Amino acid sequence: MPFRLVEAEDYVRIPPTEFGKPLEDIALQQLKSRYEGRVLREVGYVVAVLKAEVGREGKIVFGDGGTYHKAVFTMLTYMPLDGEVVEGVVENVREMGMLVRVGPILGFINKIHVMDEPNIFFDASTKSYIGERTKRRVSVGDVVRARITGVSFTTPREGTDLLLRVTLTMRMPGMGKLEWLREKKPAAKKT
User: Fold this and answer.
1) pTM of the complete model
2) CA dihedral of residues 104, 155, 29, 67 (deg, nearest 10)
3) How confident is the model at residue 187 (pLDDT cuts 50, 70, 90)?
4) Domain 85-182, what architecture?
5) Can you give the residue ranges of every domain in the chain?
6) Helix (H) or strand (E) holding 43
7) In angstroms, what CA-CA distances link 140 with 86, 93, 94, 115?
8) Which residue range or ranges hold the S1 motif domain (predicted)?
C-alpha cells in the first residue's frame, strides 16, 4: 500500500489560556484535529499527524489575544493507486455492490465485478453474493483480494470536505476471496 510520510507547513493559533505550556504539544493537538481523517488532493487520506516543530516567535493579530506560530509537521498519508492490487475485509454487502475496507479507506465493488460468473445472486438474509455456477459465496467479514480500477476525488456539497472514491474489481485472475485463491487446482493430465 502506498503509505507515505509527508512534511507540510501551516500556522497554529496558541490561545492565551495555553501560554506557558509546551508549544509542540498544543500545536500537535490542533494539527491532529485539523488534518487527521481528511482527504487532501495532493497527498490522499491523512491517517495521522505524527510530529510538529513550532517556531518560537509568534505573530499577534489585532483584536485577537492569541499568537500565531508557523508549524512544520509530518503526516502519515495513504494514496491508493489505479491498478494496485490490494487486500481488504468486506464491510457491507448490498444489492448493487459491496464495500471493502482497504487500509484506512473504503473501496466499492459493483455487483458485476464481484466474481467471474455469468450470474451472481444477492442474498439479503445473509448479506452475501452467490455465484450461480460455482456456488461460491462472499459475505461481510470475508477477506478479499481486488484490483483498484479507479481513484477519484469529489466534493459532495459546497463547503464540505473532499471525498476519496475508490472502485475495485475481483473479476480477474488471481483476485477474489482469499479462501478461493488457496483452493488447490487439479493437476493437469499428462498425455
Assistant:
1) 0.80
2) 160
3) low
4) Beta Barrel (2.40)
5) 3-78, 85-182
6) none
7) 17, 6, 10, 15
8) 83-171
